[in-house]
Amino acid sequence: MKNATVIRHLAFEDLGTLESALHQHNYKIKYVEAGIDNISSIDANTDLLIVLGGPIGAYDEQDYPFIVDELHLLEHRLQADLPTLGICLGAQLMARSLGAKVYPGDYKEIGWSPLKLSVEGMNSPLAHLAAEHTFVLHWHGDTFDLPTGSLHLAASSKYQNQAFSWGKCGLALQFHPEVTVCGLERWFIGHACEISTTSDVSVAQLRQDTARYAKQLEQQAAKLWQAWLESF
Questions:
Q1: pTM here?
Q2: Pairing of strands 84-87, 48-51
């Protein structure tokens, strides 16, 4: 059995659909809770490292010192081309660990919309999330520059850099392909303040769009995870 170490920043932002894919590929999952567990004690050579999302910034180490440990860990992993996945904040941390700038965007992108895949994206596991197959969930206010040496995989109508790959085994996703219909109900509670203070965003609209798009995303994301886990 292989080990998947998962850094989680919020209890309700978990692996979602990725969990069953990991079990199918014989991974034993261990969550490491940021802010509680000692991230510096993580085995840097664990079989798979996954860094999940959260509402803090990848540049907020003054308030959240564990970010420094995450960056050091990611730098080691990516330099060694070890299997590494970053989602939202995790993708931003990957970008920063590779020397790219992470910064607040011009506006928040919260809600469901299609991806625009690059040629490289269409030739990657992300092809399963092409616009003709599914919409995806976006939930971020920060963005990042594309790291030098990475491959640009996807954009959205609002942000150019939505996904990149690094080497053979690194994948950074600004959006959230892991979410489920049931799990998002916890997001609507946990992110209530952000929802209420973001223009043109409401729980009612998010729930309506989730009912419309999430089941299809769950099906397509399962294919994404299978393809990616089989690629290394």
A1: 0.98
A2: parallel
- Give the other-Cβ count within 10 Å of 32's Cβ: 19
Tell me how far apart the alpha carbons of residues 5 and 17 are, in angstroms, rounded to a whole number.
Answer: 16
Residue 209 one-letter amino acid:
D
Rg of the chain on CA atoms, in Å: 16
Which H/E stretch holds residue 136?
strand 136-144
User: What's the mean pLDDT in 123-147?
Assistant: 98
User: Active site residue: 13, 70, 109, 178, which one?
Assistant: 178
Tell the residue number behind the tokens 């419309």, with chain if given.
212
Rounded Cα distance, 52 and 71, in Å: 13
* 88 has catalytic annotation: yes
Which residue in the list 88, 109, 138, 152 is annotated as catalytic? Answer: 88
Burial of 129 from C-beta contacts in 10 A (0-12 / 13-18 / 19+): buried
Q: Is 133 a catalytic residue?
A: no
pLDDT grade for 199, boundaries at 50, 70 and 90: very high
